[in-house]
Write a structure and sequence with these properties.
Number of domains of chain A: 2
CATH architecture of the largest domain in chain A: Sandwich
Helix content of chain B: 10-25%
Order of helices and strands of chain A: HEEEEEEEEEEEEEEEEEEEE
Number of strands of chain A: 20
Shape of chain A: elongated
Order of helices and strands of chain B: HEEEEEEEEEEEEHHHEEHEEEEEEEEE
Oligomer: heterodimer
Radius of gyration of chain A: 27 Å
Largest sheet of chain B: 11 strands, antiparallel
CATH class of the largest domain in chain A: Mainly Beta
Mean pLDDT of chain A: 88
Distance between the termini of chain B: 32 Å
Strand content of chain A: over 45%
CATH topology of the largest domain in chain B: Porin
């Protein structure tokens, strides 16, 4: 009788354990920095594409900036590639942005979501996509209107890029050295070998071209 | 873990209580030839050949009786032993209790997996069939002596009907019992007595089972190239599984030893983490693993069941074979260089689709109506569970294993 009682106890215990057993909750190992994921690229058309990203976890310090960076290689970096900055954000979850510049038609591009937090810059995985193109650069003005060789000239407009390697500025047909650029402005140097006293300024990006309506005047 | 130790303790207590003795109604034949009824300890070990434990009544103390103290002993409706002079493997004569399989004009005996026949009193003959390797036309073949056929032909010459059946007889209990039984039926049916005849040669018990499992994976390697896996630490997982069980036993041969076969289905997820530095130590890698697995576990084990009562403790020892029906592995790697963290995703499946293991279990079953409930605590050690594809040439240095504790509850549809 005692033994049957032991068996009953054992059986009851076994059944209870069986019923109570459950899957361990998935928990990721914590990090000091935010963890990023890059989502699918949608709405790919001749005007650009829409990027999505996710802040999966937050780190020890707040996110001072987040956004997307892209180029034709998988290892684009925020400081020298095309980029959309969406500013600070201190919550986990998805985010998205539509890029309208620096994409060549029928060419594979790679986008990465990124976040800056304290001293860290964190990139999500590179997501490949085939672009259908982007909007043509637009020049709305430049200043100064006249300058000497090697002086800096600022071109303003839209659909430029931060990626200096993909951007070309010409004074007439003479290429200029670009100092820095944003999607809205380009700072370049008047070519040291520029000869023509009056030239138009041309911006070339991703197979598309924009030219000033007014002439730039070279001061000898 | 405490749960498992508690269960283990319970099972052990049950086993200890049951493993002591199993006195069943039986008899002894003393040296004067008198049969004394009582209770004999039922064992399935080789000690049966040396002595028996006998007590006249359930309440009385037992006494051990050796081959020089009694002529024979046995169990009512079950097996019986007789004291006989037999040759040992070293050709020495020794007196031992040998098991009676058939008693009649020709008697059949079993002693330590050797068969003997006796037609005339004290004329015990061993049935042998030695095998020898010989070369015929440069081909190695096994040549069998078939001495047992010659012996049986001589002894059964007085029953012509049986002679043509002797050619096909093998040195197995079932084959010999049938032959000797038919011979006795032919020459002296009134003397023919078959021992353990009420017991079946083969019984298969089919059932269903569910189990609660806890499992962890371990990876170690001395090869620097396998640092990703060497440093991997996976969270312990808890998951249920369901399955079918089949227990095959031959009560006629060994009622306590059976073959347990099982198929268990389970689906479960692992998460793991691994961190290490590059060779040059300028990049620090952090990896999160996610494994989604669906497995079919096919187990085969020998089961030793302790006694023939309502509650039967048992233990299992065998092999487990795991087949991963779904083996999805994903890894997110973060490479830290300076203050830049670069994330990349990988889907490198490194667990082998099939791997083997060793298992041992302790449990008990209990008869309820015409069913038999069982509960078992089991440990399963999986071996060589992983081969990283990108390092297949060095993966031998990777020691990858799994440790699984299971609590199994099930029901056999027959007793």
């Amino acid at each position: 009788m005692k033994l049957n009682c032991s068996f009953s106890l054992l059986l009851a215990f076994s059944l209870a354990t069986l019923l109570l057993s459950c899957k361990a909750k998935d928990e990721l190992t914590p990090r000091e920095y935010p963890r990023m994921d890059t989502g699918e690229v949608t709405a790919i058309n001749t005007s650009g594409a829409t990027f999505t990203g996710i802040i999966r976890t937050l780190g020890a310090t707040p996110v001072s900036d987040h956004g997307f960076t892209w180029s034709t290689t998988p290892h684009s970096l925020v400081d020298n590639s095309s980029q959309i900055s969406l500013g600070p954000r201190n919550e986990i979850g998805p985010f998205s942005a539509t890029a309208t510049f620096a994409m060549e038609a029928d060419k594979v591009h790679y986008v990465r979501a990124y976040a800056r937090a304290g001293e860290y810059v964190v990139y999500g995985p590179a997501m490949p996509y085939t672009s259908k193109g982007s909007m043509t650069p637009v020049i709305t003005g430049f200043s100064p209107a006249s300058a000497r060789r090697n002086d800096q000239v600022t071109i303003t407009g839209s659909n430029f890029t931060q990626d200096l390697n993909r951007l070309t500025v010409l004074f007439g047909s003479t290429p200029a050295t670009i100092v820095r650029a944003t999607p809205e402005s380009i700072v370049c140097m008047v070519p040291y070998n520029l000869q023509a006293p009056q030239t138009k300024i041309t911006v070339k990006l991703a197979g598309k071209t924009a030219t000033t309506t007014n002439n730039f005047t070279l001061i000898p | 873990m405490i749960k498992f130790y508690t269960t283990l303790l319970l099972v052990l207590c049950s086993c200890t209580a049951y493993a002591q003795s199993d006195f069943r109604p039986g008899y002894i034949v003393n040296l004067a030839g008198d049969t004394l009824s009582g209770y004999v300890d039922y064992k399935e070990s080789r000690s049966n050949n040396k002595f028996c434990s006998f007590k006249p009544s359930k309440e009385s103390h037992s006494q051990q009786l050796g081959v020089d103290a009694i002529r024979a002993y046995g169990f009512k409706g079950d097996k019986a032993y007789e004291a006989k002079q037999v040759k040992t493997n070293e050709e020495e004569l020794t007196k031992a209790f040998i098991e009676v399989l058939v008693k009649g004009r020709l008697s059949l005996y079993l002693y330590k997996a050797r068969f003997f026949v006796e037609k005339d009193p004290d004329q015990l003959l061993e049935l042998t069939n030695t095998a020898e390797e010989v070369y015929v036309n440069n081909t190695r073949v096994m040549k069998r002596s078939n001495e047992h056929i010659a012996t049986l032909n001589t002894l059964m010459i007085d029953c012509q009907d049986q002679l043509n059946k002797i050619e096909d007889v093998s040195l197995s209990q079932r084959s010999l019992v049938t032959l000797v039984k038919n011979y006795n039926q032919c020459v002296a049916p009134e003397e023919n007595r078959i021992l353990k005849e009420s017991k079946k040669w083969l019984v298969a018990k089919v059932g269903i089972a569910g189990s609660a499992n806890t499992e962890n994976l371990t990876f170690t390697s001395s090869d620097r190239r396998l640092a990703l896996y060497d440093h991997a630490r996976f969270d312990k997982v808890y998951y249920p599984s369901v399955g079918l069980v089949l227990n095959i036993v031959s009560p006629r041969l060994k009622e306590r030893l059976s073959l347990q076969t099982e198929a268990f289905y389970a689906t479960y997820d692992y998460i793991g983490y691994s961190n290490y530095s590059s060779f040059s130590e300028d990049v620090y890698y952090r990896n999160d693993f996610a494994l989604e697995l669906t497995s079919l576990k096919l187990n085969a084990a020998f089961r030793y069941t302790f006694i023939d009562k309502a509650t039967q403790p048992y233990f299992n020892l065998g092999v487990s074979n795991r087949l991963l029906l779904n083996n999805t592995a994903s890894r997110i790697q973060e490479s830290e260089s300076g203050n830049t963290i670069q994330t990349s995703k990988h889907s490198d499946t490194f667990l082998n689709k099939y791997h083997m293991g060793m298992m041992a279990g302790l449990g008990a079953s209990y008869q309820i109506f015409s069913y038999r409930l069982f509960s078992e605590l089991r440990y399963d050690k999986g071996m060589n569970i992983a081969t990283p594809p990108e390092f297949s040439n060095v993966s031998r240095s990777l020691k990858a294993g799994s440790d699984t504790f299971s609590l199994i509850v099930g029901l056999y549809f027959n007793k």
